[in-house]
From TrEMBL:
Native species: Psychroflexus salarius
Protein name: Pirin N-terminal domain-containing protein
Residue sites binding Fe cation per the record: H58, H60, H102, E104
PANTHER family: QUERCETIN 2,3-DIOXYGENASE
UniProt keyword list: Iron, Metal-binding
Length: 235
């Protein structure tokens, strides 16, 4: 097993007043040559957006873009005629493909919205753009819940890549295993809340560890812990 540990306090930072963003990997004006990606996971931003503020209309191309609100809600519009609200307990995916323009704004006039923004490289370029969003079950506890995969008929949303995202919400202390769907993949564990031990490393809120070249990893989880497991090809 090989691994890389990322302390939450060492993440890159962008603060524009209306936007307070933490970057797990190089993004925008933040550049760290040692932190440009984990395999095909290119971006993991932890964004806090002020009331009624947001990202105006802007383009993307050849990227799988995933948004997961942690609190609050976002108002989404794009040039494929999608206009919707995505809120806590949901996941959104956009396959930018040949090109898409969209905007994302905090839907509240009084409360900030906190959401995760992930970018994953697609398996090929110039694909047809697409949009989807789905609810995440609140009933599944103390086990992995798949919320993204490469398969349109599988659980959760899907993207054009051999990637999976699982969410684990643990109400009691436990141990749980994770094995990759594809042997050459790695998995980036991001602690949303609580504490866990992975690859002998103690992790707290917003800490992360990426592991690869392993058969099965055992995760020791404390009570009231939420973990995002992002499995991606390593090249």
């Amino acid at each position: 097993m090989e691994f890389t540990y990322h302390n939450a306090h060492n993440r890159g930072k962008t603060n524009l007043g209306w936007l307070d963003s933490k970057h797990s990997f190089s993004f925008g004006q933040y550049f760290n040559p040692q932190l440009t990606n984990f395999g095909l996971l290119r971006v993991l931003n932890d964004d806090l957006v002020a009331p009624s503020m947001g990202f105006g209309k802007h383009p993307h191309q050849d990227m799988e873009i995933i948004s997961i609100p942690l609190s609050g809600s976002l108002r989404h519009r794009d040039d494929m005629d999608n206009e919707t609200i995505i809120k806590e307990g949901e996941i959104q995916v956009m396959s930018a493909g040949t090109g898409i323009e969209h905007s994302e704004f905090n839907n509240s006039k009084t409360e900030a919205v906190n959401f995760l923004q992930l970018w994953i490289f697609p398996k090929q370029k110039k694909l047809k753009p697409r949009y989807d969003q789905q609810s995440i079950s609140k009933k599944i506890k103390n086990e992995w819940q798949q919320i993204l995969s490469p398969h349109p008929n599988d659980s959760g949303v899907w993207i054009h890549q051999q990637a999976w995202i699982n969410l684990g919400e643990f109400t009691t202390a436990t141990s749980i295993d994770y094995s990759c769907h594809v042997e050459a993949n790695g998995v980036y564990f991001f602690i949303l809340e609580g504490e866990a031990e992975i690859a002998t490393q103690q992790l707290g809120k917003r800490d992360a560890i990426g592991i690869w070249a392993f058969e099965s990893a055992q995760i020791k989880v404390q009570s009231n812990t939420k973990i995002l497991a992002i499995e991606v090809p390593m090249q």
